[in-house]
Amino acid sequence: MQNFIPSAKLNDKTSTASKLFLAAVVCLLAAFLAFATPTQAFALETAKCTAQPNAESGNDIMGATETRITWEVQLAENETPTSFSLTLPEGSSCTTDHAKLTMLTGADLMTRNDLDATWSVDGQTITAELSEPATAGAYYRVTVYDVFFPANGGSMSLVGHIGLSDGTVAEVSDIPAIEVVGVTIFEQISQSLKQQDWVQAWNSNKFCKLFLDPTIMVTSFPVVFWGFLQALAIVACAFPLAIPVGFILALMRMSKFAILRGIASTYVNVVRGTPLFLQIYIAFFGLPLAGIVIPSFPLGVMVMFFNSGAYLCEIFRAGIQSISKGQFEAARSLGMNGAQTMLFVIVPQTVRRVIPTMTSEFILLYKDTSLLAAVGVMEVVMYAKTIVAATGSITPYIVAAVFYLIITLPLAKVVGILETHLDDTDGGSGKKKRKSKDTRGAKSHSTVIPERLDQPAQGNKGITPEQQPSL
Amino acid sequence: MKMKKWGVLAVAGALTASLALFGCSTTTAEEGAGDEATEASYTLVNEGKFTVGVSPDFPPFENLVDGEYVGFDIELSKAIAEELGLEVEFKTLQFDGIPAAVAAGGQVDVGITGLTITPDRQETVDFSDPYYIADQSVAVMKGGEITADNVDDLLNTEGMVIAVQSGSTGEAYAQENYSNATAQAYGNATDCFAAMQSGQADAVCMDKAVVEQMLAEAYTDAEVVKQVATGEEYAVAVSKDNPELLAAINEAIATLTEDGTIEDLTAQFLG
Predict the structure, then answer these.
(1) Interface pTM, i.e. ipTM
(2) pTM, to two decimals
């Protein structure tokens, strides 16, 4: 079979094999050396060693930011500890404040015994000298607060030493490394802001510190930004879907068939008559119980577009019904059927009229995405909330408000412009024109409208040339 | 048009200014009133009342039963208020907002709602002496793939979702010890369990006593797979501006510990 293996590959294989062998020898040697020099302490076993996540949200442990290390170790039966020490990697620091040594005993290790110890810090090493030798072979937990890892992060390997009653020191080298991420630029800015005099002066005012703390503002901005993208993604998916839903509902509500009308009005009335918050709860906690499991993002989008569809339905219905009856009659008299009338005459005019209201609905929908925070969708408010919970400052909510205003203020302006535009073309001059025509000839609507359809250039901008149906 | 805009601006400015002034004047007035009304020199939000911020979704510590606040913390609040010679009043707030509300003042005097002393929280508020020591617990739905034997490995994998209460120590525990999983934060304990039952989350990580209560009463189809003696100390959160109130509360807690009230309450609600 070996004949089939290309020689190059064979070489590869042998070289990796030899490398592996060498590595194994080195490891063994290293292990032998490590254990041989201090003492025979194979029984020492680190159960876990973790650091508390300290990023504004999520599970990351950041460098140059305060964290807490929890190291748990199981001693062998014949080992009685007299001291515990933990050495952090170069560039780290910690203090003895709040540091704690606990012995866990009993079933499931559920009984805590806080031990009396004298704590000291020497460089990167923190040591707890027990006042009296503790129980042999027990399970111990060392908690160290105010730990700062190096700013650029990396894989942090810690080394523990346990002094035993027989005078030897056991080295614990199987501590799992702690992955630390480097501090972000925002974190650095925040840290440097903290040192500035004006920031300290600003924060000495309780109101300013609670609502507009610059250091928290800087760190929460990038975090809340992710929520902003999520909220945008939700409306960007939900709103386009809501438009056809709303339109179909609007047509159903104006249908000749009582059943269609009934279905649409029931839907619209129920959805508009109950709070969106409740609908979200029902969808998120109710549907899964009924066996329908949908991930939270698509489910959030669904709730939003079904809700918005009901509102858009009413907007479209009002829009369609605002088109004067003469338009229907005129179109029908020109030989168009119902569908054609709708499609070529009514809808183009409706679209123009409902755009401002639709934009308002868009703004409402965007703001309502905040309600999804209650069911754990990570959007603007949710991200802000996690930072508020961690820091106790309201500042992240203010940052969140900024992210809403970025969208809503310009859009509100757009609505204003569109409305004035509509007034000028439709409500304003259009009405005047109609009035003047009415006074001139007192013509009925049905005779006025076809004229408009034929001669759009004559001043009626109710339908623009592009929207003008070719008759 | 221009004039109108400036007018609006001026009115808005005046409103803000008056609000700020009003805010100042009320606080000073309250301080004065507080001083006169009670012998101690602490200030209270409402004169003669001990206003406690609670998040009543954390049985057996605090919960709403038929619209009434019940639980360990509620009884403790009543006992402390009695010691202080005040009338107790509860105010429902979202759990993660309570330390901020206490720090900001104006709404509540203290927070007694299963708040664990943590260095982070200590930066915003002061804590009294602890009145209860809690542990963490992880619960899952029965019959799932997670069991007591594999919980540490299986739950600590990508894609696992652990429902936690926003801002709780359970959240911090899940983030630290199950760092590969996602700790999904919900507003209250009930929502966490609802999320797990509905399959939105694989597990719940929360204070042991609460998990046990939830399993006993509402979620009998769930089970505890892990318990950790984290030894978290529950204490009363008091504003840093109110050291006199803190001292009075510490005194009350000492008295209640001595006369056995706290022990009785523990036996009653957590026994």
Answers:
(1) 0.71
(2) 0.69
